[in-house]
Amino acid sequence: MGFTSATEILASLGANPFWTLHEILRRGKWIDLSHTADESSPLWSGFTKMSRTALFNLDEHGFQAHVFTHVGQWGTHVDPPSHFHGGLRTLDQLTVEEQLLPLVVIDVHEKVLANPDYTVSMDDVRDWELRNGAIPRGAFVALRTDWSKRWPDHASMLNRDAEGISHTPGWSSEVIDYLFDARDAAACGHETLDTDPGSATSRSDFSLEGLVLSKDRYQIELLANLSEVPEAGALAVVAFPKVGGATGFPARVFAIAPV
Hints:
By secondary structure, the chain is α/β, with parallel strands linked by helices. Helix content is 25%, strand content 20%. It has helices at residues 6-11, 17-26, 58-61, 109-114, 122-132, 154-158, 173-182, 198-201, 207-214, and strands at 29-32, 51-56, 65-69, 77-79, 100-107, 140-144, 187-190, 218-221, 234-239, 249-250, 252-257.
């Protein structure tokens, strides 16, 4: 017997359908997709490192509280559209419906191993869809390069040559357009410091990041542990503070995958 609505599907789970759904999810595999960030974490060269000051301490006050000073784009972080486009949404204007999403993982890590300058192609996306069907509407699309395994070595993350050119993988304009225009993805993410490959960022070209955010969608940078997530079938949970007018902030991202 088929179901005609989400309400009917949930009703089939029992008297407390959302609690039953939670029990189902709890039995899945939970994967943390965020790095632990601190004062020494890699970040874009134009930013200053994080600092913290103890405002209260246990010995004197009986509790602890710290003041943190950091750029919004610190550690695993969210870039809302306003990061590059002043007229588009700021962090607090992203909806909660955009924070629990089907997770699509485009795996190009073997190609990156052979060529660190590799940029994802439409062939990579078509191959994914041949195996798994069309990318679902409202997906979070993550680019797996295994670059996160270089964390927290800043020099290794940048991978610069003798001339100072960074050799890191990245997205491509045709894939970005396809994901957001043809497949209506909700967000994307990657393991590198930037959306654009290092060959572009080394000449201060961040046009692909600008392209993503121009779609009025958000992105997550510096993801971790994508090697532990299936290419299809998992959910992504993206959490960040609701800071008014913010143009970026550290995020906690995790996946729930079937076992």
